[in-house]
Amino acid sequence: MSTYTARLAALRDQLSRQQLDGFVVPLTDEHMSEYVGAYAQRLAWLTGFQGSAGTAVVLPAEAAIFTDGRYTLQVREQVSADDWQFVGVPDTSVSAWLAGHAKQGGRIGYDPWLHTRAWVDEASKALEVVDATLVPVDTNPVDAIWPDQPARSDARLSVHEDANAGRSSADKRAVVADWLTEQEADAVVLASLESIAWLLNVRGGDVSRTPVALAYAVVNADGTADLYVAPEKMTEEVAQHLGNAVRVHDHREFAPALGTFAGKRVAVDPTLSVAAIPLAIEAGGGEVVALRDPTVVPRATKNSVEQAGHRSASIRDGAALSRFLRWISIEAPKGGQTELSAAAKLEEFRRETGVLKDLSFDAISATGPHGAIPHYHVTDESSLPIEPGQLYLIDSGGQYVDGTTDVTRVVPIGAPTAEMRDRFTRVLKGHIALATAVFPRGTTGAQLDALARLPLWQAGLDFAHGTGHGVGSYLSVHEGPARIAKPSYPGSGPSESLLPGMILSNEPGYYKAGEYGIRIENLLLVVERTFEGGEDVMLAFETLTLAPIDRDLIDSALLTPGELSWLNDYHARVAGTLAPELEGEDRAWLIERCAPLR
């Protein structure tokens, strides 16, 4: 098992023992999470792929790994082309590929705790063309051959105080109970870890970079709830916080409990719940009602306390990032710094705030050609030295009890080329266009996406990732349901109207394969805006993130007067807000880097 080739061979042997002609390995867990615990990193263990989204299919004589445009370069760098075919989505789906490659009458295995019911139905239908069958497995064959598979985390739950949440758990559960009454349902199953954390005002440490606990919850029409979690995760403080209205059960009792809803209507979110959940409810005589998780939109629309908390988190995070940007501008040209050392230094500055709980994701610390990999993951083996003539890209964020941050900046090491400045300025123009957008209620992120791309399109350029994603409040750095992306972007789902209180990223980019990457990312808060003489209350964005945008990469001749005014106003706000948080040379550097451009 010391090589990925050996692991693939071992999986094929295991499939033969389980009488399967293939198996599908997604990168997710039993909660359909984007970021998963170490025990659920089956795709990485099998293939070596370190991205945050992907799927593998293993057949007796061939194997394929499916990734979207964010990982086109990364997957080829990390996964052996001798063992795996590289397939792009959404151009080709896993189901369509199976229909063209599975053997006639074959048995294709899947883990019903790792796929949605919609995917099972889609794949089953696709396989009909070759009379093949999708077969649920009781034992995941990857787990069967993974000798040192990490144990599930035993981190304890903690209370997320109402002072940071802005609403009590009892209030949130009452709203869900009213919703159940409106839907004429008896209960709703919550499988999303973020939903459970938000609803019960608890946090955990089971998933790296995301403060959630492995658990399930059932909320009943009377406002009570049943929480299924490993007993060792509970503390007396959490028990008192939950109160008598939340009954706590061993997580191993969840699957059997699904069979106890005979004669009842149970709401299940089909996009956030694995197939095993509705199948078990129906097997026990319950009626499954496919409805969106009722906590998703309330969780995404931050209340005034959460908004104020994020503003505070943005100030301390911006001060830490500014210290880092000064440090990298001085130290990198001297030589001796690497992608890993730079990421470690930024984490050090964030930890010096004294209140950092964790990073919000593994920093994308990328220099030169690695910058052209949008979701590059630096390792000991891949870390490159940061050298003159390169662009260094750092995409990072922090988890604080009052907010989750995510920001990207690019620093030239030495003098940038004219092309670099042109591309950077076009990305900046798109960033400004989105930041200054004004739009009516009912507008979706898909409708705004082109604003960020137009300056690139006008030069025959584009970028292969979404322009913006939702961000949680001391929760996941990637949060639905809203996003800013092309309608065809992988995972976009139905168009979602932007609502006041939503926090989304604004991160257009440009990537030149093998040479450099550019991305400028701030977080935006959707706010209401009125106009004198206007007939409607409109929506707009408040930029939350505070950090200087590198002036040496900006070709001001390409900026319109309005764009230049926005940039100077933004930098004035950055300097005015962050300067009091900094001292000495850090403060002087910030003020100089935020001086107006002409």
From TrEMBL:
CDD domains: APP (cd01085)
Highest taxon of source: Bacteria
Keyword Oxidoreductase: no
Gene3D superfamilies (UniProt xref): Creatinase/methionine aminopeptidase superfamily, Creatinase/prolidase N-terminal domain
SUPFAM superfamilies: Creatinase/aminopeptidase, Creatinase/prolidase N-terminal domain
Enzyme Commission designation: 3.4.11.-
GO CC terms: cytoplasm
Name of protein: Aminopeptidase YpdF
Pfam families: Creatinase_N, Creatinase_N_2, Peptidase_M24, Peptidase_M24_C
Keywords linked to the UniProt accession: Aminopeptidase, Hydrolase, Metal-binding, Protease
Peptidase M24 C-terminal domain segment(s): 538-597
Molecular functions (GO terms): metal ion binding; metalloaminopeptidase activity
InterPro entries: Creatin/AminoP/Spt16_N, Creatinase/aminopeptidase-like, Creatinase_N, Pept_M24, Pept_M24B, Peptidase_M24_C, X-Pro_aminopeptidase_P
Stated family: Belongs to the peptidase M24B family.
Lineage summary: Bacteria, Pseudomonadati, Pseudomonadota, Alphaproteobacteria, Sphingomonadales
Peptidase M24 domain residues: 310-528
Creatinase N-terminal domain segment(s): 7-137
Top EC group: hydrolase
